[in-house]
Every structure is written in C-alpha cells, then in structure tokens.
Amino acid sequence: MTSRSFAVVIKELHPELLVPIALFYLILRGMDTVEDDMTIPIDKKEPVLRNFYQITEKEGWSFDGNHVKERDRELLVHFYHVTKEFQK
Hints:
Elements: H1 5-10, H2 15-36, H3 42-50, H4 52-55, H5 73-77, H6 80-86
C-alpha cells in the first residue's frame, strides 16, 4: 500500500538519489507502521522500535505481528526486500 504524497515526489528524483531516498522512506514507513499500530502489545512493539536500526542489517527480517487490517502491513511482511536492497 504505502502510497503517500511523498512517494510521488520520490519518482521525480534524479536516478542517483531515487533508490537511497526511497529506501529511507520505506524504512521510516515500516518503523512508523509498527509505532502507530495500537494492536501490537507494548512488550512486542518496544523491542522492535528500539532495535529498528539493527533490523536493516538483518537478512530476511519481516514482521507479521501487526493487525491484519493495518494498511502498511504488507510492507512489514515483505520487509526483507527493503533490507536486501539496503545491504547492497
């Protein structure tokens, strides 16, 4: 899902900037999705948020602990694509 007005602007960037800024955007969207979902118990949410900077280094990381109707859930379920690109 993850379509915000900022995503439209990213597409217009110079190719050199497009991938790094898109990755930064997706990483922040992922973290914000965890933070905003009030159905995630705090004991599960807090460690994910505190260690999110390390998650970008974890190969294959994904998260399916958020509510099934969370609009950006798919981003977290498939977050391993983001981490794979980030590690290049």
